[in-house]
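User: Mind token order:
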Amino acid sequence: MVMERQTSDALFPEVTVRDDSVGVRLPEWVNELVFDRFGASHRPAGRSLAFNMNLDADEEKILNYLGTYFPRSVAETFVIFDSLLSDKTMAGSLASEDCVRVCSVGTGTGGDLLGLLLAIAKRVPSVKAIDVASIEGNADAHSVMREIIFEAAKVVGVELSVSLVNHVFEAPRPFANLNDFLPRSPDRFDFVICSKMLNELDGTGISERPYYEFCSSFSQLLRPMGTLMVLDVTSPNGAGGRWTPEVLNKQVNDFLSERQQFKSILPPICNRLELDCGSCYSQNVIHVSHREAVNECSKICYRVIGSNVLSDQLLDSIELWSCPIREHNLSKCNMRKH
């Protein structure tokens, strides 16, 4: 089945900002791709399916994940970068590039990658070429991702090139030698994204500081206007049952306190508090609708970082979706004493 290019109104997810959350409805062509083309299964009671460890997932688990959590990943990443690219400075920097370059780490079936691709196509329609370096340890999931992302590129009218790197991160320093697994070209990226993978390195003991190490290594690969996103679940998935948001925020803050040429861009409150906050349980709620679910709740924590120069340019002009840390989260914020 060859999918036809849709009208502009049907191309992109529909986003609704609410008082305490964001609603996202996926376009029908994504439903057709996931549920008709691949026959994916929606199984929301899927904690028992051990979706927090996907490296050894077989075909059945991959299709269960594709129908259950892939739509959430598309929505989560889309709303973040749809907001970021609403800024004229950010969009203008991409429009001037001959080719936008993306590095996706722990890509899986590619929900986060599709969300980013759709945000770029919506906000910067002049972008006609995107180069992706995709790093994933499960070759079967990687194969599914490749078919999905190339079909999506046809739908939105973007020329896509993808380098597939099948790589398993190992202890004790999984990101120490990037040249061992990254393609030689390109060596700088407009976007580096990692969604719901780093908690696995923490939980299995592969890395004691996965978010810190990831930021330290991959921030070196950003272009001057480039951004790095880490996104994860809000459950106690870390080693010893630690709450993932607290682990993520502390390690990202530790990185930023040492590398002061970088700064948080999103969420906005982290931009203001990162140097005063030790760790915090932050949570953003997104309600995702698609063919198999209406307003399915997804809870995430995330950070987007970039250079100080970029942060200063964006801070006063960007139109941000509503994603403040709630009062109950602020009460858990461990402020450093000066």
